[in-house]
Amino acid sequence: MEEEDAGADPYLPYDGGGDTIPLQEIPKKRGSNYVMSNGGGAPSSTTHLLDFLEEPIPGVGTYDDFHTIDWVREKCKDRERHRKINSKKKDSAWEFTKSLYDAWSGWLVVTLTGLASGALAGLIDIAADWMNDLKEGVCLSAMWLNREQCCWTSNETTFAERDKCPQWKSWAELILGQAEGPGSYIMNYFMYTYWALSFATLAVCLVKVFAPYACGSGIPEIKTILSGFIIRGYLGKWTLLIKTVTLVLAVASGLSLGKEGPLVHVACCCGNIFSYLFPKYSKNEAKKREVLSAASAAGVSVAFGAPIGGVLFSLEEVSYYFPLKTLWRSFFAALVAAFVLRSINPFGNSRLVLFYVEYHTPWYLFELIPFILLGVFGGLWGAFFIRANIAWCRRRKSTRFGKYPVLEVILVTAVTAVFAFPNPYTRQNTSELIKELFTDCGPLESSQLCQYRSQMNGSKAFNDNPNRPAGPGVYAAIWQLCLALVFKIIMTIFTFGLKVPSGLFIPSMAIGAIAGRIVGIAVEQLAYYHHDWFLFKEWCEVGADCITPGLYAMVGAAACLGGVTRMTVSLVVIVFELTGGLEYIVPLMAAVMTSKWVGDAFGRQGIYEAHIRLNGYPFLDAKEEFTHVTLAREVMRPRRSDPPLAVLTQDDLTVEELQSTINETSYNGFPVIVSKESQRLVGFALRRDITIAIENARRKQEGIMLNSRVYFTQHAPTLPADSPRPLKLRSILDMSPFTVTDHTPMEIVVDIFRKLGLRQCLVTHNGNVLGIITKKNILEHLEELKQNTEPLAASWYYHKKRYPASHGSNGRPRSRVHHVQLIGSFQDGRGGDDSEEEVHLLDGSNL
Q1: How many Cβ atoms are within 10 Å of 718's Cβ, its own excluded?
Q2: How many CB atoms neighbour CB 509 within 10 A?
Q3: Per-residue pLDDT tens digits for 252-284
Q4: Which residue among 181, 295, 534, 693 sits deepest, i.e. has the most Cβ atoms within 10 Å of its Cβ?
């Protein structure tokens, strides 16, 4: 009977003992129908391939929290939905209208996302600037104005003290009635620390109580979500609300963090919320991730005022699946968000960015040497920061200190405020510091960095001799910048990872800008005092405008940010959009590539990939190369010491046996085979779909009992007359699961998982099921290989026991089981798919 069935269905796996698969005669007429055997000896019939005519089971095809989506199934669902809409659009005007709505829903959702992202970014910028100035004083004429806005309308400001006016009062003036003296300094010191602690404490309490997911940067989790992982609530409305409020508080507290990374999280929350208004995206997780990719581009667009850089950031850094249509919609979302931000004009300078600069001199060829040295510094800083921050975060997770996030935030904020206030370069807002470091010295600049000595007792015009000897103010500023550099390096390591919204872009750029400005001043003074050196002789004439220290600050900022994140193309575009320095792309490219090469020499992972690895998220990095020689049979489960692979037969299980298997295991799915005697693969059934289908059948169908027969075939098997009604589960069966042979190189298997977004892949030999490889198995295998080469590699955490190592103590692969041992009546059943979703995820108190 089995031979007749196999002959009747050329698509069933061959049940033979040899390696040769006999060719079957394929029917000439092919279409949406084909001949399918029921596997139980009943006559075959013509059926639709996926039983689309059957009523769909509610809940089937959805995913639990902390599970990975099936990209292939989601794309198939979307194609079927699209075909259905196109087939009906000519039936009536209403169906045609529905088809138009479906076609334009993608553009509509990214438009709404861009509008919301731009509005929220403008609100955050304005509120953060006001609250940051609130630490130093208040505007008496209008409480809602910051210091700069308060003095705009004043006629009593001076050139040297343009940020001071009678309307703006420091806390010492309000409380003590005096603006100068030791008492006023102590009072301003106290109020600065008080407001910083108040803002930070309120932020961490709001995060802990209302939205634990609102902490951190959000980019590592967004990268994981875009790769197909489900984290319920991470992009929800509560997270959006709390993240928006606490981001303002965290930035205003003066901590060494930025708002750019969290703004990407805020934009993705907007995209996720608006996607639920459109069934095309709310019911398809893969399509929803296209909206999230566009939202991340909008987030960077409003964070830096760089719409093109935002699109490239989404493509290079965060997106896992980025088709051409998503590229267009990302560009449009970034455009809309930038337009809204420009309309709000949060910086009051009629520009999208705060760091816009205009340099009046070109760069010269010999300057590539200090630019490359800045790139080396950026790479070394990035490698050091990643290792130090990951070590501290790992210690936080493994010690009792991590159980008190509020206390940690208070301590870090107190240390930051106490040490930041005495230094004017650490006291001011980090964005304002970067702006001052980027700005070139001119006649309208009163910064201490521009206090050069005049050669003619002040009678010579400022711009007649741009390269002048540095005065006492410049040397004092350099010492303060050196102290600020050390302070920023130390505090950024301990700040990134706190339980408040914390971005890394601005602190990294500040560190690079400080180092770059110091190098720029040094090169400037070297060119002044040694203009006859061969390096300067050709380009730097006496009195010529030769060196621009602000340019070095810009290059250093890009180098340090590139060393931390390992971005290249998108980073260069973001920086020249951020500053308007289009002429200086070549120095930026040289520094960024140098920082990446130097950083990669110490470890190829950027800070976001390192945190993904630390948190144990199931993320397969497409940038990571797999160079080891292993085969699929060496990685598949089960192994020799593991229980046998749990499988389901296609037509001889009862509901009770199936439920017993599900209740006694916690696995993601089970291979379905022909029978206990034949191990030929029929398909793959997911645990969640089986559970939902059984519950739905008991509610809607009469006669379903514990001893009812369960079958995955087209027709019911032959049963006695007194048997209860059988349960058909064919509609939930994946009849085309991805399979590889046991001799397939793991390099190919890893590429398949990356490019197709698979959850699991079955391993077969001559059509017989041998085992299964899940995403978790691949991650474990990659981690085992890294443990042998990277001493600081992060450990993986699982709720369940770890599988044994794939290699023995002698360095050779362990032997594998080359057959499937069936589990009789499934009383001792164990699942065949120890799914990748069993990674250890931290709870709300220490996420």
Answers
A1: 11
A2: 32
A3: 999 999 998 899 999 999 999 999 999 899 989
A4: 295
